[in-house]
Amino acid sequence: MIATDTAVFTGMDIIAPTGIGIEDYWSATLAGTAGIRPIERFDASGYPVRLAGEVRGFDESVRVPARLVPQTDRMTQFALAAADGALTDSALDLDTVPEFGRAVVTANSSGGFEFGQRELENLWSRGSEYVGAYQSIAWFYAANTGQVSIRHGFKGNCGVVATEQAGGLDAAGQARRVLRNGAGVVLTGGTDASLCPWGFITQLRTGLLSTRTDPSRAYLPFDADANGFLPGEGGAMLVMEPYGSAAARGARVYGALTGYACGFDPPPGSPRPPVLGRVARRALDDAGIDPAQVDVVFADAAGTPALDRAEAAAIRDLFGRPVPVAAPKAMTGRLYAGGAALDLATALLCLRDQIIPAAAGVTADPRLDIDLVTDASRPAAIHTVLVLARGYGGFNAAAVLSLPGEE
Hints:
- By secondary structure, the chain is an alpha/beta fold.
- The protein contains 12 helices and 16 strands.
- It has 2 domains: 7-248, 3-Layer(aba) Sandwich (Peroxisomal Thiolase, Chain A, domain 1); 259-402, Peroxisomal Thiolase, Chain A, domain 1 (3-Layer(aba) Sandwich), CATH 3.40.47.10.
- 32% of the residues lie in helices and 20% in strands.
- α3 (74-90) packs across α6, α7 crosses α12 and α10 packs parallel to α11 (305-319).
- The longest helix is centred in the N-terminal third of the chain and has 17 residues, at 74-90.
């Protein structure tokens, strides 16, 4: 049986290029509806990359308190809205949890680029007196954690991790530590929103983005035609609690975080191999299970040939058998700090509904020898999911999610 101190997920909310809210996102994902489109938030005609996974239809005037809108970047508005939704979804009465027993741990990658660009433009074109005071905090990596914790009175052990695409898993791992140290509830996850010229040029510098202009052929993880990834915005926020207190209040439990590990790749040119496979193995060890008990892997799905080959090799070596591999981010783009958090939420929905989402539009390269789920979502008996994530610069993380009683 599941231990009473096991960290479980009791609420979530999603803001993604393919849908806002759990059910809109999930139905679009299962239907294979892609959110990759020409960029509309700014004129990208002069850039080599012109496609992205933009969130459309998000109205901050409705989802965010009016006083906070002029104080916050779009990434923080996403975090505030998703945090509200996750708490509502959890049906948790915060009055039953002391303020210092509530914590927030989020992932961040880009910071508040869009807000910062606007203020810098004011500085250059109009003068320093036109730069708002909120510039000092709206761009900051900890802005999401700070604003969410203030809004909901979370005064416990709050924090932020900045490990790029791996951040959502690292934040959940840290949230589990905070729960083990006595917190009653932790809001975790990540959101990103850096689709503006200033943010965009920093992404282009990696050389990893796809320059294709056909949305259906631009981001193709594990495909023989893969040539890079596309950026996106959005993410997910999740509520974590100890299983004992969640069960005592009769909470709906999406799944448990039964294993987690992280590691850092060796520097370029090193003879040592990437650490993803070892990180995945340590996560399984942390969960107390062997690879045969994993029902599906949510891949990092970098979309570049070398990184796809390395991940496919890590999966083959770890399992030694065909295991279904999901790559739903092919439909959203890579959301940076929001990416792994969205994968966590998607994996929990996979557990809830016993179905594996397909990477729509992708054809698995047979040379990679992995069972990539494509074309149509696949019903399956799912008790345990392994989620993998890699962040630019060498960050690697893995998390194991299990149904209560099945870990």
